[in-house]
Amino acid sequence: MFPLRRNRRLRTNKTIRSLVRETILSPSDFIVPLFVVEGKNVKEEIPSMPNYFRLSLDLLEKEVKELAKLNLKTVLVFVKVPDHLKDNKGTEALNPNGLMQRAVKVIKNAVPDMIVMTDVALDPYSSFGHDGVIENGIIVNDITTALLAEMSCSHAEAGADIVAPSDMMDGRILEIREALEDEGYLNTGILAYSAKYASAHYGPFRDALDSAPVDAQDIPKDKKTYQMDYHNRLEAIRETRMDIEEGADIVMVKPGIAYLDIVREIKNTFDVPVAVYQVSGEYAMIKAAAEKGWLDHDAVMMEQVTAIKRAGADMMASYFAKEVVKIIS
Length: 329
Ligand code: PBG
What we know:
By secondary structure, the protein is α/β, with parallel strands linked by helices. It is built from eleven helices and twelve strands. The protein has helices at residues 14-19, 57-69, 99-110, 141-158, 172-182, 203-209, 234-246, 260-269, 280-291, 297-310, 321-328; strands at residues 30-36, 43-46, 49-55, 74-79, 115-120, 133-135, 138-140, 162-165, 189-196, 250-254, 274-278, 315-318. Strands 1-4-5-8-9-10-11-12 form an eight-stranded parallel β-barrel, surrounded by eight helices. A hairpin with a 2-residue loop joins strand 6 and strand 7 (138-140). The N and C termini lie far apart (43 Å). The chain binds ligand PBG. Ligand PBG binds next to helix 6.
């Protein structure tokens, strides 16, 4: 008999295709990244991220209410810190009345059941644009992890549900977990950027926060001494295993599309929830190609976010979250 099997039978029409569909997106798959700035009534479009904005606290409040209406109930908060508040140790990060701490309160006040994740890293606060303290041209691991632990407690104090260290220092998950336990924040979770690669896809994000490594003598030009080498796969398993042992509740792979082999492997290897970050450069590429009329924006967007879930992501941070949810609901 030929053909042995007619696989096309289950693709005959839209209804039957949806009957056998394996991967379905829902609003609860998404984490919405938010960029926050000082000021009032500020809504600044990020030039390399069309239709994505930095918001002041008053507009942040409006935004999270709108997200909640779309059933987008998890946000990941980043702040743009004015230059005069930046230094080598990211001192401002520990200010109990800093922009991040105020942002968390504004969000929790506006939408009490919104899950608030906070970025824990020094780079937006660092005068050198690095995720760690620099001494003699070197990013010093253990001084940095102590600061990240303090920063995490400060975010927990402000009301963060989950802290999200994005720095890639060694041992920071254990240090953060111990600090949270010591201070009584037993229910504050940790989303660990476990397999975060030194990627060229972060450029637009660094524009958004003005957080790129500075070009100065004795300052490393890139983040390759702490973020992972993209030639490696086993290293991602090792990093993830250690973060889980140290107390990570959720592990993350970053970026998304170019790293879906890693996502699947981590999903198959471990038993904790896996997150993916579809990063700024991935967003920018789709926006730019669509602007030129070279790609169908919505079709490519849906294909990529679905591929991320199909690869094994239990959740994803995506700048497309709102646009996707408007299409699927
Ligand atoms: C830095 C950080 C980066 C992103 C999230 N946290 C950039 C970097 O490592 O330089 C990138 C996110 C994106 O590109 O969307 N701690």
